[in-house]
Every structure is written in structure tokens, then in C-alpha cells.
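Work Package 4 report. The design task specified in the project plan requires that, given a folded chain encoded as C-alpha cells, an amino acid be chosen for each position. We show below one input record used in the internal validation round.
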């Protein structure tokens, strides 16, 4: 059984109204602090990676849709 993936904003502890730059910075900070080599847990690290992967798929889908509408 696969655990439900937590939303990106909850995992990174940011407001949904942040800019893309602030979101990226929050991700990098959380990724570093959650990494097992820097004292974090593997579960935290994987949650951050999963949340960012969801964000990436949404951004990719949006950019693909925007690009296809330009034609």
C-alpha cells in the first residue's frame, strides 16, 4: 500500500501564494535539512522529493498546454 503524497506547500511549510523563486528556495532549504547525510530522515527526504515531483509534473503540464495554444 502506498502512502498518500503530502501537498507541496505543507511539506515545504510555505504559503500557496509564494513566488516561484521563493518556492524553489524553500525546496532547496528543506531538501538540504531533510537529507539523511545532513541529519535528516530518509522519510522526510523522500516526502520532499515526492512533493517536488508533483510540482514539476504540474508545471510541465501547464507549459505544454500554454505552448500548444500558441500554435
Amino acid at each position: 500500500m502506498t502512502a498518500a503524497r503530502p501537498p507541496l506547500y505543507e511539506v515545504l511549510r510555505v504559503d500557496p501564494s509564494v513566488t516561484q523563486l521563493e518556492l524553489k528556495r524553500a525546496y532547496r532549504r528543506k531538501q538540504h535539512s531533510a537529507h539523511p547525510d545532513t541529519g535528516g530522515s530518509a522519510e522526510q527526504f523522500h516526502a520532499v522529493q515526492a512533493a517536488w515531483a508533483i510540482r514539476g509534473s504540474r508545471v510541465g503540464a501547464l507549459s505544454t498546454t500554454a505552448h500548444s495554444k500558441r500554435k
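Confidence is low (pLDDT under 50) at residues 60-68. Validation will be extended to a larger panel in the next phase.
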